[in-house]
Each structure stands twice: as structure tokens, then as C-alpha cells.
């Protein structure tokens, strides 16, 4: 097996890591398993071009993406469209898709697990044709990410602290907007503070990620308009893993959903796999594609 690893130099752990030493370790680990790995560290602004080149011109069997959820999402888009298998090397802050795939969060442990892993097919979702492997979110999350951009941070811990600070600011003035949801033949209008559509339903852990990415279903999570104190209570329920019992959260599942925004603002944003993106379309169709993405995961004999 030949693996081409594209590493985002500005992605989380790689900011302070000795990249040359890490790549030497990766080559040694994969060689022990009878495999080859081509390590390619690149700056963040060149990550997409490097991923495309690695997927289409390197002759590799597997495209490895090293970085945060944004880097992994970009790699999943390319892997899905080219048919190459994707390997996730978790070097970001949350590493949510890596958690879904049961990839260890320590870099050396992740390399060892992937070097003895196997290729499996899992689900991927699209929003108006744009793929995502974790989540499409509106309302609270995009506002928090936008506010976080006002703060400077240079480490994983700094990003977490900036997120907490931005979250506190949003809680003081929670968003509220109307959205029309169509699932099958049923159409419903909701006034919401937050809306999230996930690639497979979330588990019960405090972090919002899907423990199973082969159900063939989207998770749909609606939070009604909340006062600040209700948001604080919801945050506490999320941290304690009991958010499903919160009366302000509505959960549904579907293979596809169509969203329409009756009063879409010109500067509206969504968050797709952790990245802030402009929300330009009044109608967004979200579809899950069962088993459409090939990924390298822990082998059946590999301990989790």
C-alpha cells in the first residue's frame, strides 16, 4: 500500500511539531507493515492544491490528510470525487471525524493504527453538492466562529479558550431566524436559534460526533429560540451528555432534507465541518450518500 500524506503545517499539533522527525517516524512505522508513505508538509494556503495533486498524480492508494477538521473535510471532498481511499491523521482541535472512525488521537498511535488498518466504505453527506463528513450548522455555531475570528491564538489551547470566549458573547445575544424544513412529503416551519445537520446521528458523548458513520441517515437537530439562561442550561446538558432530554432540542433523522430560508440575510453564514462559509442560497438540499467514501480505519484485529 502506498500512502501519500499531506500535512497542514498550520494545523493544530503541526504548528509546534518537528515535521521532519515526524515524517521519519511515519516512514519507519509504515515500512514495518510493508507499506510506503510519502510525507508532504505544506502551508495552509496550499493545502487544497497539494491534496488534489496527491490524489490524482502520485500513484498512491491512500490519501492521508493531517490537520484539523477543515483539512480533513477538504481531503474527503477530493477522495470522494476521485475514488481514492482517505486516511485521517488527527492533528486539529476537535478531530471529530477521526473520533467517528475510531482513530486514536495521539499522532504516533494514529500512524500505527492506520499502518495496520483496512479500507472500508462509510457515508458522506452533501449540502447543495458540497460534501461534508461531520456537520452543516446554522445560527449559534456560525456566529460563534465569526466572533472567534476577532481573537488571536497560536495553539490548540488558545483556540479552545477563544471559542469559549466567543460562545459567552453569543449567549448574551442568541440568534433567532425562521427556516422551512421539508422531509419527504412533510413541510414544517420553525423559528430557531440553531440548526445542525450531521453526517449520521450524534452519539451521547459531550462532543457532537457520530459514533457510527454507516447508518445511511442524517441527524437533524433543531434548537428553538432561547433566552441566555436557557442557553447556559443547554450548554451544561451538552457537557453532561444529557442534551437529548433538554426540551428545547428537537431531533429527527432522514436520508435527505431541504431547507428554505424565508428571510435570508446577505451576510448569512453557515459552518461546514468547522469552516465558516457564506450562505448564499435561499434553498439548501442536504443528502446523505451511503457507503460512498472509502476510508482507512483500524483493522478488525486492531485494539481501539
How many structurally independent domains?
A: 2
**SS content category:** alpha+beta
- End-to-end Cα distance, whole Å, is 22 Å
Biggest sheet statistics: 6 strands, antiparallel
Instruction: Strand order, main sheet: write it out.
Output: 6-5-16-13-8-9
Regarding quaternary structure, what we see is single chain
Got a strand count?
Answer: 16
Order of helical and strand elements: EHEHEHEHHEEEHHEEEEHEEEEE
Estimate percent helicity. 25-40%
User: What is the level-2 CATH architecture name of the largest domain?
Assistant: Sandwich
Tell me the CATH topology of the largest domain.
Answer: Tumour Suppressor Smad4
CA-based shape: globular
Radius of gyration: 19 Å
CATH class of the largest domain: Mainly Beta
* Mean pLDDT over all positions: 90
GO molecular function: kinase activity
Protein name: Diacylglycerol kinase family lipid kinase
Keywords: Kinase, Transferase
InterPro entries: ATP-NAD_kinase_N, Diacylglycerol_kinase_cat_dom, Methylgl_synth, NAD/diacylglycerol_kinase_sf, YegS/DAGK_C
Give structural notes:
It is a single chain. Helix 6 crosses helix 7. The protein is α+β, with helices and mostly antiparallel strands and 304 residues long. The protein is globular, with a radius of gyration of 19 Å. The model has no long low-confidence stretch (mean pLDDT 90). The protein contains eight helices and 16 strands. A hairpin with a 2-residue loop joins strand 5 and strand 6. It folds into two domains: 115 residues, 3-Layer(aba) Sandwich (Rossmann fold); 159 residues, Tumour Suppressor Smad4 (Sandwich), CATH 2.60.200.
